[in-house]
Design goal:
The protein is mainly β and 199 residues long. The chain is built from two helices and 13 strands; from the N terminus they run ββααβββββββββββ.
């Protein structure tokens, strides 16, 4: 296809247009970036760009949009933490049998969840027979100064002192909790003899 160039520098197909379609009353459209329409029955030719728009000048990167603020986005605070300003240890679960033998897990006021995930308070990530999340829960009730063990949503059963743990059960010192191939022994700190709020 032979393109013709008009005196103003526009290229056009002479088989479709008798004279330059960009100069012939279409200057307003060209200025607006709207290409001229071809004659009836003709197809619009592909024309080379008359000018290249330079890229915008570099400037400072836009600031990221602030994260949305939610009124209740803060982590829940334990009762003892509200009173003392800290969330101290209230007892321990100590692994006495299994791959984590000798390791201890701090218990804090409220619920302490057990599972293989690192998000769990008591993380038994090396025991594949333990559910990833919420295999069970050890709770400390500072109002009644008591510890409790309860089953979670895990597939495998837990055993407390050799008996299946099917509902909430109060824990006593040296109680043993079996789950997967792991045995945890309960060691309290808080109770009738000691409370952080009184110290």
């Amino acid at each position: 296809m032979d393109m013709k160039r008009c005196p103003n520098g526009h290229y056009y197909d002479p088989s479709l247009y008798q004279d330059c379609p960009y100069c012939r009353g279409a200057s307003a459209n060209v200025n607006l970036g709207v290409p001229p329409q071809p004659q009836p029955g003709a197809t619009m030719p592909v024309r080379p760009m008359d000018r290249v728009t330079p890229p915008p000048a570099p400037g400072p990167a836009p600031s990221p949009a602030p994260a949305p603020s939610f009124g209740d986005a803060q982590k829940t605070v334990a009762v003892i933490q509200q009173k003392t300003g800290i969330n101290p240890v209230v007892g321990w679960m100590v692994c006495v049998d299994g791959l984590d033998k000798g390791k201890d897990f701090r218990l804090q006021d409220g619920n302490n969840f057990i599972g293989r995930s690192r998000k769990m308070d008591i993380c038994l990530e090396s025991d594949e027979a333990v559910s990833r999340e919420n295999q069970g829960v050890i709770s400390y009730d500072s109002r009644h100064k008591a510890f409790y063990a309860a089953p979670g949503t895990g597939q495998n059963l837990m055993y407390l002192n050799g008996e299946p743990l099917l509902m909430i059960h109060e824990l006593k010192p040296y109680d043993r909790l079996e789950l997967g191939s792991t045995t945890l022994m309960f060691m309290p700190l808080c109770g009738e003899e000691f409370q952080w709020e009184k110290e």
